[in-house]
Amino acid sequence: MTQSARRSGRRHPLFGALLLVIGLFATGGAYAATSAGIAHAETTPLAAEALVEEGEKLFMANCASCHGMSGEGSEAGPSVIGVGALSVDFQVSTGRMPMAASGPQAAVKPVQFTQPQTDAMAAWVASLAPGPGYPDPEYYDAQGDVANGAELFRINCAMCHNVAGAGGALTEGKYAPHLRDLQPINIYGAMVTGPQNMPVFNDMNLSPEEKNDVISYLKYMDENPSVGGFSLGSLGPVSEGLFIWLIGLGGLIAVAIWLTARSN
Predict the structure, then answer these.
(1) Does residue 119 have a pLDDT over 60?
(2) Distance in angstroms (rounded) separating the CA atoms of residues 133 and 205
(3) Which is nearest to 179 in space by CA: 207, 203, 149?
(4) Is the dihedral of CA 161, 166, 170, 173 positive or negative?
(5) pLDDT for the residue numbered 104
(6) Are residues 155 and 205 in the same domain?
(7) In CA terms, which of 33, 35, 50, 212 is 20 to 30 Å from 187?
(8) In contact, 43 and 113? CB cutoff 8 Å
(9) Domain assignment of residue 170, given as a range
(10) Which of 117, 133, 149 is the last residue of a domain?
(11) Domain with 226 in it: what CATH number?
(12) Among candidates 238, 220, 39, which has minimal Cα distance to 147?
């Protein structure tokens, strides 16, 4: 703008065109942002609704005979209202559900559903009532503190699952399963949902970071075999005592019989 234009108060001839261009850019940007938000609002609920509908169909066909048409439970199975998506993922993705037959507890068997089908059933169950959902991946990436995880495992888990995660027998035909070569998300799910005889470890008992430490310890055990030779199943004094009685004492008896036969 020239000195004479400033003195007279007149604007530069291109000033109006500049304002028009700025206005067009601002209007276009606002429209694009609003359209993207509307599109996201329209597609996300529709996708979630479709997932829930698919999960309902799968549940009715495979689970409702025991858990009820609305998940309310029956004499053959407990209610699933409020158990959350994480419980469904644990039970189905490990093959425990659907159960092949009634028993003291659900046994691990070949998985019958794909992960998308499992996610769909989990979404439908989650729609019934609030419950534990999927955690952030950072809480089961097995990159936590192994030493702290080992201490937490000895304090909270070893009395049932054995200090090496080899599992053990419980009462009335029940058992604590082994914890070797498991998916980290399933270990996290078991701690949060407390399946069958296992207690629930909520975030007040074990924080998400501490749960990841426990997972890190178990994965460390998977990747580092026993350095003391044959582990005998890592079952502790029971298997070691049985080994001594059958192999050690049996060997001594066999040697004694052999020496007696030679002397005769």
Answers:
(1) yes
(2) 18
(3) 149
(4) positive
(5) 84
(6) yes
(7) 50
(8) no
(9) 135-230
(10) 133
(11) 1.10.760.10
(12) 220
Q: Are 97 and 107 in contact (CB under 8 A)?
A: no
The total of other beta-carbon atoms located within 10 Å of residue 205's CB is 13
End-to-end CA distance of the chain: 128
Question: What secondary structure does DSSP assign to 193-232, as a single string?
Answer: H--TTSPP--TTTS-HHHHHHHHHHHHHHHHS--TTS--G
Q: Residue 29: which H helix or E strand, with range?
A: helix 15-62
Number of domains in the chain: 2
Is 14 within a domain? no
Mean pLDDT over all residues of the chain? 83
Tell me the one-letter amino acid at 60: M
Closest C-alpha to 219, from 157, 145, 160: 145
φ, ψ of residue 80 in degrees (nearest 5): -110, 10
Shared domain check, 88 and 124: yes
Q: Which of 115, 67, 55 is nearest to 90 (CA)?
A: 115
Q: How many other C-beta atoms are found inside a 10 Å radius of the C-beta of residue 225?
A: 8
- 74 beta partners: 77
Assigned token pair, 148:
């702290």
Integer-rounded Cα Rg, in Å, for the chain is 31
Domain annotation covers residue 195? yes
Q: What is the pLDDT of residues 125-154, one digit of tens each?
A: 999 999 999 999 999 999 999 999 999 999
